[in-house]
Design brief:
Largest sheet: none
Number of helices: 4
Helix content: 55-70%
Distance between the termini: 64 Å
Strand content: under 5%
Order of helices and strands: HHHH
Shape: elongated
Structural class: mainly alpha
Number of strands: 0
Amino acid sequence: MVDDPFSEEDGPTDPVGQEVLDLLREGRKIQAIKLVREHTGAGLKEAKEAVEAIAAKHGIEPPSSQGCAASAIFVAICIAIGIVVALIS
C-alpha cells in the first residue's frame, strides 16, 4: 500500500500530498493517480486505491458523470427533433 501523504491532523505532510488533494478537489482524479505513481513508483491499482482513500478521508466526492449523460441525451433529443422537422417539411 502507498503511504498516505497526510498526517493524523488531516493536513498534507509534503507538497506532493497537497498537490494530490488540490487535484482531487478540482475533480482531476486521473492526474492525482498519475502524480502518486510518479512519486511513489506504485502500480496503477495501488495508486488508484491510495487516491480514493485520500479522497474519502477528506470527504471529496468523485466527480459525477451525470453531466455527460445529460448532454448526450440532450443532443440525441435535438437530433430527433431535427429529423422530425425535416420529415414534416
